[in-house]
Amino acid sequence: MRRNVTSDNLIIPLDFRPHVRAPRPYQRQTCQAENREMFVTTPIYQVKAEFFKTLGHPARIRVLEVLRDGERTVSDLVPAVGIEASHLSQQLAVLRRANLVQARKEGTSVLYSVGNPVIFDLLDVARRILTSSLDETRALLTELELSERSPRSPKVKVGTERKPRGKASHR
């Protein structure tokens, strides 16, 4: 029997496996004393971490970006993503297992599409975060370059001031 796990107001399907080696958000364990099956849930933060691991490969991000424009076949995705067909198939399998990408057969072709367009919101937020960070770095670099171009004050070495020699006359 399939059940859903609710945590932090999220309903997580029990067969959700976001990453190739990711554990399921539940584990079946048999209680020896009572001889019954029980479910042990995985904390939501661990499920989220596994979800982000799924997005942790550049080819997978690129696939999602290309699929933003609509469904595509593997032969359409290969040049757009820039990896070999065998590697692309592996990455598509990871995205399918995480329910980020869906496949449907049309004749002899398999068409891939994004299962939930909310993923594009996440990609847009990531772009805004990176852009903001790069803007801050660019501003610091500009400030540094301007400080190097401005006239420099003469450098004075500490401890090199001249001291009078001999005894000073007292008046």
Question: Overview of this structure, please?
Answer:
It is a single chain. By secondary structure, the chain is an alpha+beta fold. It has two domains: 1-54, no CATH class; 55-146, Arc Repressor Mutant, subunit A, CATH 1.10.10. The protein is built from five helices and seven strands. It has helices at 44-54, 58-67, 74-81, 85-97, 118-149; strands at residues 4-7, 10-13, 26-31, 36-41, 72-73, 101-106, 109-114. A three-stranded antiparallel sheet has the order 5-7-6. Strand 3 (26-31) and strand 4 form a beta hairpin. The N and C termini lie far apart (106 Å). Mean pLDDT is 80; it is low at 1-7 and 17-23.
Quick structural gist:
This protein is of the alpha+beta class. 43% of the residues lie in helices and 20% in strands.
Broad CATH class of the largest domain: Mainly Alpha
Shape: elongated
Number of helices: 5
Percent of residues in helical segments? 40-55%
Q: What structural class is derived from the secondary structure elements? A: alpha+beta
CATH architecture field of the largest domain: Orthogonal Bundle
Give the averaged pLDDT, no decimals. 80
CATH topology annotation of the largest domain? Arc Repressor Mutant, subunit A
Keyword list:
Arc Repressor Mutant, subunit A; alpha+beta; single chain; 171 residues; three-stranded antiparallel beta sheet; elongated; 5 helices
Secondary structure topology:
Blueprint (H helix, E strand, L loop, with lengths): L3 E4 L2 E4 L12 E6 L4 E6 L2 H11 L3 H10 L4 E2 H8 L3 H13 L3 E6 L2 E6 L3 H32 L22
Antiparallel strand pairs: 1-2, 3-4, 5-7, 6-7
